[in-house]
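Two proteins follow. First one:
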Amino acid sequence: MSSLDTTLQISRLFLATLGTRLFMHCEDRIPRQGAVLVVSNHRSFLDPILLTAALGRPIRFACHHYMGQVPIMRDLVKTLGAFPLDKPGQGQQQFFQQAIALLQRQESVGVFPEGAEPMVKFTEPDRVGHFHRGFAHLALRAPIQDLLVLPVAIAAFEERSLGSQIPLRFLSLFDPSEPLFNQPGSHPLVFYKRVNVMIGRPYWITHTHRQQYEGKQAKAAVNDLNNYCQAEIANLLHQGCF
């Protein structure tokens, strides 16, 4: 059994152990092969595991830098085949290089454009925050034919939160470069009991998109992709949480 198949089995077993009930919507939109950039909202440490199980194929997630530093989280990241982002303030060149290499191998790469803030501040299930545009730059600059960007909404309609469990200042011991940890409060832990995973309409990156990105319309091309994914996920959340 390959390590990728093992990741998929671990994800399904983990959710079964927690008793998480997963409901799929529009799963016919999920490609079974080829390079895919999965874009999703983010509220729980379970999200990478949930999406891997839901999409039925291993996904290599870009995760926050601190997750590669904190014990237990570091082991979980390694087991799931995720790769931490660069330290804050150091750019994202390493992220682009790793993600493009994975996509060139026709693997799936997952990103959470809201970043780490929803993980340290409890947010409502039907809300999506501001999107960072790094994923759009990645999609438009990756030299991959027929790259598919797949927006996915994680819409919990029954969950359990353990509230504030891990002090943020404690996490700063492992990653002092992260400004989010230099504040009072704690890291909430959200567990899904019943959750809708809603697959959005795919966005295919065409030769025309790449031409626009390399020219004077680069900013518009990035904004179009960013806004499309954010609007698609927000609309799906509104449907899935009620």
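Second one, unrelated to the first:
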Amino acid sequence: MGKLKVVCSIFLVAFLACKQNTQEKKAAEETISREPLLEGKEITYSTDSTEMKGYVVYDKNVDGKRPGILVVHEWWGHNEYVRERADMLAELGYTAIAVDMYGNGKQAAHPEDAGKFSGMVMSNIEAAQARFDAAMEVLKNNPTVAMDQIAAIGYCFGGSVVLTMANAGKDLDAVAAFHSGVQLPIMPNEKLKAKVLVANGAADPFVSPESVANFTRAMDSIQADYKYIAYENAKHAYTSKEATALGEKFNLPLEYNAEADEKSWEALKRLLNDTFGENASE
């Protein structure tokens, strides 16, 4: 009888160990299967007058529809940086479109050209809205996207674009602007529906204290759901790793700041989680 108990005990231990190993193996396989498998594709879309070249990306390992996010480039134009940010959003489980606001994938190699290109867009808000709307339509019609869950983020010029579009009453649930001007062609008003995050550098000379005061005053007047963050010691373009070299090349106050970059990305993730829920992409 004693021997039988010992045999039974050994069998039970072996069975439990085997079961645990199987469960651990299954969990590991599930973890591997959940690793992002990005599907990125260049696309062409257009308004009545302008053809644009964008980039759409999503994680093939995410089942079902998920929120869609527009990503608007810096004043340099639609480049690899804006696509990298779109990829980062896809890794979080969203579908992202890197937008082309200049048309034909046009990029600037010099600040003078960048200023001209961005100025042409911001001085013609009707054309800017048409280009933004065209990109949004592409995003909403993507089969991976939940059409009623749309956000937009932008960097520098792109931040001003997404804030302006939100103030124009676009169908956006959330917008986030990084190192962005806040003296906008369309200032905050009752048409604003989106939650708003502005993440700027406290040492950014392109963003004046007066413009910040005007912006926050306007947001407060309509009781907007917003957060304005100013990161200490962060200069303009603090999220771009190429900013420091570009600043030195063109004698501009541009500088990458790893701490502010990381903190602002975490702030964005909190905004998206608050807006769509942590499991919105599952």
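SUMMARY FIELD: The first helix runs from residue 2 to 33. The chain has eight helices and eight strands.
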